[in-house]
Amino acid sequence: MTVRNDGQAPLGDIELIVESHATGDRALRKEIRILKPGDAVSFRFHELNPTAKLRFRIGGKTFVYDEDFDLWAGEGWILAVDSHGAVSSLYESTAAD
């Protein structure tokens, strides 16, 4: 899963939590202090069909985004954040060609 800053302002106090959709068990929890415009950070985990919660701040305002994913081996997701805090959820194939 990748978190990408597509906006013009830094994202701060970023927290990404990935849990099993079926059991609620936590598969991943990452904190990032700052993500500059144009930067991205990627994480690997082994949970199929996860639930993700992304929390971040832009200019002192806190945003929260939740989504359930239908992922299989070799698939990933990009959470692209714009300057207004809107998140675009994009499919990403991570399988080797």
Question: What's this entry about, in short?
Answer:
With 97 residues, the protein is mostly beta strands. The chain is built from no helices and 8 strands. 0% of the residues lie in helices and 60% in strands.
Termini gap: 19 Å
Strand numbers in spatial order across the main sheet = 4-1-7-8
Helical/strand content category: mainly beta
Strand composition percent: over 45%
The number of E-state strands comes to 8
Order of helices and strands: EEEEEEEE
List unreliable stretches of 5+ residues.
none
Spatial shape: globular
Rg, rounded, reads 13 Å
What is the residue-mean pLDDT, rounded to a whole number?
87
Q: Work out the helicity level.
A: under 10%
Give a short account of the largest sheet: 4 strands, mixed
Number of helices: 0
Describe this structure in words.
The protein starts with a strand and ends with a strand. It is globular. The chain has 97 residues and is mainly beta. The chain contains no helices and eight strands. A four-stranded mixed sheet has the order 4-1-7-8, with no helix packed on it. A four-stranded antiparallel sheet has the order 3-2-5-6, with no helix packed on it.
Q: Topology of this structure?
A:
Elements: E1 2-5, E2 11-20, E3 26-35, E4 40-42, E5 50-58, E6 61-68, E7 75-81, E8 87-93
Parallel strand pairs: 1-7
Antiparallel strand pairs: 1-4, 2-3, 2-5, 5-6, 7-8
